[in-house]
Amino acid sequence: MQERDIVNDVLAMTKSSIQSYGMAITGCSNQQLRSALQKLRDEAEQFQYQLSQIAEQKGYTSSPPTANQQDISQIKNQLNQP
User: Fold this and answer.
1) Which of 43, 65, 63 is closest to 53 using CA atoms?
2) Phi-psi region for residue 65, left (φ > 0), alpha (ψ -120 to 50) or beta?
3) pLDDT given at position 61
4) One-character DSSP codes across 2-66
5) Burial of 9 per CB tally in 10 Å (0-12, 13-18, 19+)
6) Tens of pLDDT along the chain (82 residues)?
7) Domain regions of the chain by residue span
């Protein structure tokens, strides 16, 4: 298995973990457990961001192109229409 594949697998697993933490947090009534899960989610988000930056630098992934102002305005107009 190549490094690129490993990095992409870890990114996908981390994304899944973050989503699972979110679901667990919203269903948690114990404040201590909720806080612990939020901390774990925050750490996973930070790890995912750092790893995605490294992956992008190495050319393993690429960021979507930045939207220009005209595209943003067009989408806003479409969403604001009844």
Assistant:
1) 63
2) beta
3) 83
4) -HHHHHHHHHHHHHHHHHHHHHHHHT---HHHHHHHHHHHHHHHHHHHHHHHHHHHTTSS-PPPP
5) exposed
6) 899 999 999 999 999 999 999 999 999 999 999 999 999 999 999 999 999 999 999 999 877 788 889 989 999 999 998 7
7) 3-62
Predicted local confidence at residue 62, as pLDDT: 73
**Are the beta carbons of 61 and 55 closer than 8 angstroms?**
yes
3-class DSSP assignment, residue 1: coil
Cβ burial, residue 49 (10 Å; 0-12/13-18/19+)? exposed
Instruction: Name residue, tokens 């697993």.
Output: 13
Question: Residue 34: what pLDDT?
Answer: 97
Identity at 40, one-letter amino acid code = L
